[in-house]
Design goal:
Blueprint lengths: L11 E6 L4 E6 H12 L1 E6 L3 H14 L3 E6 L2 H7 L7 E7 L6 H13 L5 E5 L4 H9 L4 E4 L4 H12 L7 H20 L6 H11 L4 H8 L3 H15 L4 H12 L1
Parallel strand pairs: 3-4, 3-5, 5-6, 6-7
Antiparallel strand pairs: 1-2
Helix pairs in contact: 2-6, 7-8, 8-10, 8-11, 9-10
């Protein structure tokens, strides 16, 4: 029987399937697709809403072809199909759920522990500062509000993957306003108190206990008590409640 001959073509490559012993011939375009797929970083997207997660997954892959987005309804579903693979990042879609709710907060914490070597990033419908801080406190390495574009979301994932922490600009500005507001309150007390007394007085206004004040200001609890006595004397107050009331009156 005459042997079939395969002519030389620089645009063709051969692949051998070791299980079947079969020879396949592939063009450069197909081969490059296979090579590129092997190099793509897996990002696990968790969202119980099927249509939403599939749409977002395709959008993110279109935005950055280096990412392979695997969309599942839960971490348990991922474990059934993982086949030994490890995601480079985990994207949890919180949607309209509040991060301050125990359920979603516990879910973020559990994912952060389970995928401790890889960042967990949260996408939620709000850019409220309290929600952002709660997500980061639970172990998230990024917080993406759903009002940003898909390009920003893709960059946020890559930033977290590189070791950074992404928070929206609105959250940073809100944090700055809170810091400035607290600082101005303390400065406003400077005419009556020493700098340290002003800090303790502001903490009293916010209803903090002595132990908390001592911890936050890195003071001994006995020192905090001394400052409180001095503050009460200067304000002619008889208790902490009266101190808090008079300080609010001074700052209004």
């Amino acid at each position: 029987m005459e042997q079939a001959k395969l002519g030389h073509d620089s645009n063709l490559r051969t692949m051998v399937d070791p299980a079947e012993g079969a020879l396949a011939v592939s063009g450069n375009e197909d081969w490059e697709t296979i090579e590129n797929d092997a190099e793509r970083e897996i990002v696990l997207l968790i969202d119980p809403r099927v249509l939403d997660r599939e749409c977002l997954a395709r959008s993110l892959e279109t935005q950055n072809s280096s990412l392979e987005i695997i969309a599942v309804g839960s971490a348990e579903e991922w474990h059934r199909i993982a086949d030994g693979r490890e995601p480079e990042a985990v994207l949890l879609i919180a949607g309209s759920r509040k991060i301050t709710d125990q359920g979603i907060c516990a879910e973020i914490h559990a994912l952060a522990e389970e995928f401790s070597q890889h960042p967990v990033v949260v996408i939620a419908d709000t850019d409220d500062l309290g929600q952002i801080l709660k997500a980061l406190e639970a172990g998230a390495r990024g917080y993406i509000p759903s009002n940003v574009g898909v390009g920003v979301a893709a960059e946020a994932i890559l930033l977290a993957r590189a070791g950074g922490v992404f928070v929206p600009a609105s959250g940073v500005l809100a944090m700055r306003d809170v810091i400035n507001s607290n600082s101005s309150r303390v400065v406003g007390l400077g005419n009556l108190f020493t700098a340290r007394e002003a800090e303790v007085a502001e903490a009293l206004r916010r209803g903090k206990a002595n132990k908390i004040i001592a911890y936050e200001l890195q003071l001994c609890e006995s020192t905090v008590k001394v400052h409180i006595r001095n503050i009460m004397k200067k304000l002619n107050a008889t208790n902490r409640t009266e101190v808090a009331y008079k300080i609010r009156e001074m700052q209004s």
